[in-house]
C-alpha cells in the first residue's frame, strides 16, 4: 500500500496513507510532497485478553468508528479515489463502500487474498463466523470502480464466482526500483552496521572471524602498499571483497502465521546438517564439492515466532553446519540483506491458493534465487529451474539446498538462477508491455504505470 501511495503521489495526487503505527514508512514515500500519514488509534489493550468472539466484536466496532471518522471528517475534501487492500475485509470493505457512495469517491480494491480464507485457518471453513465473513466480503467487495488482482487465478475465481462489477486488471506485485543485488561494498557496509546482531551466542565460533582491519564476517579488506598516496584513513582501505570462506546466507521472511509451516524448514535444515556431515567428513567426496555452513536468517514478527525459535535453539545445540537466527530490520536495511544473501526460502502456502508471496517478489527484485513451497498459482511467479526451485516437502527442500549450495561460493547451479534473474531484469519495457514475455520481471513503477495509471488518469 505504501507503493500505491508513492505512485499516486508521483502523479501529483494529494495522497493520504491511512493505517496503524508500526514499521517506519519507506523514505521514498515520506520525502514526496503532498503525502499525508494518518495513524488510526489502536484498539484497547484488554481486547487481547478476552475470548475470540468478544475481541473480534470489540475490534470491529472500534475500527468502524475510527475509520469512518477518518474517511468522512478528517479528510475535509472528498477524495477522488480510495484504494483499499483486501484483506482485511471486516469492516473495511463495507466502510469504503459506504464512503464511496456518500462522497462520490471511486473505490479501487486491491485483491491480495481473501479474508475469509485466512479466518478459516483459525476456525475452519464450516465455522459460522467464516461463512458470515465470506458473505460480507462478497457483498461489499463485488462492486467497485476498479479491481486489481495479484494473480490471474484470483481474477478468474472472483469474476466467475462473485460476478464482480467494475474495471479489472491483474497487477502483479513488484518491488520498488531501489531493490537490487548488492555489490561487495554495500554488503560490507551493511554488516558493519548490523554487527551487534552477529554477537548472538549461537553464532560464536560459527561465522568466520574478521581477518583484517575493517573486515566483517562476510567481507574482507586489505591495505595498499606503502607508496600509495591517499588523503584519509578510510580511503586507504582497498575495495571490500566477499570472503571465500564465508558461510552461505539464507533468508526467509515471514509474519509467523499458520499459513506458513516452519516445521518444513526445520526438518530440511536437520536433513542438510546430516548430509553436510556425511559429505564433508568423506574425503573421497571432496571432488564432488563440499557443502558449506548455512546461516539461516528469518525476518519478521508474528504470533508463532517464540514457539518456533525455542525449538530452533534446542535443535542447533547439536548442529555443526547450520545456525538459525531471527532478525528484525528497518525498512532501509531489509532490501540490503536480501541483496546480500545467497538463497531465499519461501514457505507461504496461501490460505486461498490464489495469491502470491510478496517475500518472493522482494527477493527476485534483489536478484536472489528462491526455493518456494508449491501451491496452485505459484508458477505465475516462480519458474521452476529458471528463477528458482519449487518443492513440496522438507525432503525436496533439503535436496534443493544441497544441489544449489554444493561447492559454494562457486556453485554453478546457483549462479545459473542468478543469471536468469539478471537477464529478466534487462528485458526492454516494450517487450514486457506487449505481453510477448509472460510473467517476466520489471519494477513496481513500470508495472503500476502500465496497469493502474490508465485507470486513474483516463477521461470519464
Q: What does the model show?
A:
It is a single chain. The protein has 460 residues and is an alpha/beta fold. It has 17 helices and 14 strands. It has helices at residues 2-10, 27-30, 52-74, 92-102, 115-123, 128-141, 152-162, 184-193, 262-281, 305-315, 334-340, 358-365, 394-405, 412-425, 429-433, 444-451, 453-457, and strands at 15-19, 35-39, 81-86, 106-111, 143-149, 165-170, 219-220, 241-242, 248-253, 294-299, 322-327, 343-346, 370-373, 388-391. The strands form four sheets. A six-stranded parallel beta sheet has the order 11-10-9-12-13-14, with helices on both faces. The chain has a four-stranded parallel beta sheet with strand order 3-4-5-6. Strand 12 (343-346), helix 12 and strand 13 form a beta-alpha-beta unit. 36% of the residues are buried.
The biggest beta sheet is recorded as:
6 strands, parallel
Shape: globular
Helices and strands: which structural class? alpha/beta
Strand content: 15-25%
Mean pLDDT across the residues is 87
Which tags fit this structure?
single chain, 460 residues, alpha/beta, six-stranded parallel beta sheet, four-stranded parallel beta sheet, 17 helices, 15% strand
Break the fold down into its secondary structure elements and pairings.
Blueprint: H1 2-10, E1 15-19, H2 27-30, E2 35-39, H3 52-74, E3 81-86, H4 92-102, E4 106-111, H5 115-123, H6 128-141, E5 143-149, H7 152-162, E6 165-170, H8 184-193, E7 219-220, E8 241-242, E9 248-253, H9 262-281, E10 294-299, H10 305-315, E11 322-327, H11 334-340, E12 343-346, H12 358-365, E13 370-373, E14 388-391, H13 394-405, H14 412-425, H15 429-433, H16 444-451, H17 453-457
Parallel strand pairs: 1-2, 3-4, 4-5, 5-6, 9-10, 9-12, 10-11, 12-13, 13-14
Antiparallel strand pairs: 7-8
Amino acid at each position: 500500500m505504501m507503493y500505491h501511495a508513492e505512485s499516486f503521489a508521483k502523479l501529483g495526487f494529494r495522497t493520504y496513507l491511512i493505517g496503524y503505527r508500526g514499521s517506519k514508512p519507506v523514505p521514498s514515500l515520506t520525502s514526496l510532497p503532498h503525502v499525508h500519514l494518518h495513524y488510526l488509534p489502536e484498539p484497547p489493550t484488554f481486547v487481547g485478553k478476552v475470548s475470540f468472539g468478544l475481541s473480534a466484536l470489540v475490534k470491529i466496532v472500534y475500527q468502524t468508528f475510527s475509520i469512518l471518522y477518518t474517511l468522512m471528517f478528517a479528510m475535509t475534501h472528498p477524495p477522488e479515489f480510495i484504494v483499499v487492500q483486501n484483506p482485511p475485509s471486516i469492516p473495511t470493505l463495507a466502510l469504503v463502500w459506504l464512503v464511496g457512495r456518500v462522497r462520490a469517491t471511486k473505490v479501487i480494491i486491491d485483491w491480495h487474498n481473501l479474508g475469509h480464507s485466512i479466518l478459516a485457518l483459525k476456525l475452519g471453513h464450516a465455522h459460522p463466523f467464516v461463512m458470515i465473513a465470506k458473505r460480507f466480503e462478497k457483498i461489499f467487495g463485488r462492486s467497485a470502480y476498479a479491481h486489481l488482482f495479484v494473480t490471474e487465478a484470483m481474477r478468474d475465481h472472483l469474476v466467475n464466482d462473485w460476478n464482480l462489477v467494475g474495471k479489472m486488471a491483474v497487477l502483479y506485485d513488484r518491488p520498488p526500483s531501489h531493490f537490487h543485488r548488492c555489490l561487495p561494498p554495500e554488503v560490507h557496509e551493511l554488516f558493519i552496521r548490523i554487527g551487534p546482531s552477529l554477537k548472538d551466542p549461537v553464532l560464536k565460533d560459527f561465522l568466520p572471524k574478521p581477518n583484517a582491519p575493517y573486515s566483517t564476517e562476510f567481507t574482507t579488506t586489505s591495505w595498499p602498499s606503502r607508496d600509495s598516496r591517499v588523503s584519509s584513513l578510510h580511503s586507504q582501505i582497498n575495495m571490500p571483497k566477499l570472503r571465500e570462506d564465508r558461510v552461505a546466507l539464507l533468508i526467509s521472511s515471514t509474519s509467523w502465521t499458520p499459513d506458513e509451516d516452519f516445521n518444513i524448514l526445520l526438518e530440511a535444515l536437520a536433513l542438510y546438517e546430516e548430509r553436510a556431515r556425511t559429505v564433508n567428513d568423506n574425503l573421497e567426496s571432496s571432488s564432488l564439492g563440499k557443502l558449506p555452513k548455512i546461516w539461516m536468517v528469518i525476518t519478521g514478527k508474528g504470533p508463532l515466532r517464540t514457539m518456533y525459535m525455542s525449538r530452533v535453539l534446542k535443535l542447533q545445540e547439536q548442529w555443526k553446519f547450520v545456525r538459525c537466527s531471527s532478525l528484525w530490520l528497518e525498512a532501509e536495511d531489509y532490501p540490503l540483506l536480501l541483496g546480500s544473501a545467497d538463497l531465499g526460502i519461501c514457505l507461504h502456502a496461501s490460505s486461498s491458493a490464489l495469491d502470491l508471496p510478496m517475500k518472493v517478489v522482494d527477493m527476485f527484485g534483489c536478484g536472489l534465487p528462491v526455493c518456494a513451497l508449491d501451491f496452485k498459482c505459484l508458477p505465475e511467479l516462480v519458474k521452476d529451474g529458471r528463477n528458482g526451485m519449487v518443492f513440496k516437502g522438507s525432503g525436496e527442500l533439503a535436496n534443493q539446498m544441497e544441489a544449489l549450495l554444493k561447492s559454494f561460493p562457486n556453485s554453478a547451479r546457483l549462479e545459473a538462477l542468478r543469471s536468469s534473474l539478471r537477464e529478466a531484469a534487462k528485458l526492454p519495457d516494450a517487450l514486457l508491455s506487449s505481453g510477448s514475455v509472460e510473467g517476466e520481471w520489471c519494477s513496481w513503477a513500470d508495472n503500476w504505470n502500465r496497469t493502474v495509471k490508465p485507470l486513474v488518469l483516463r477521461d470519464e
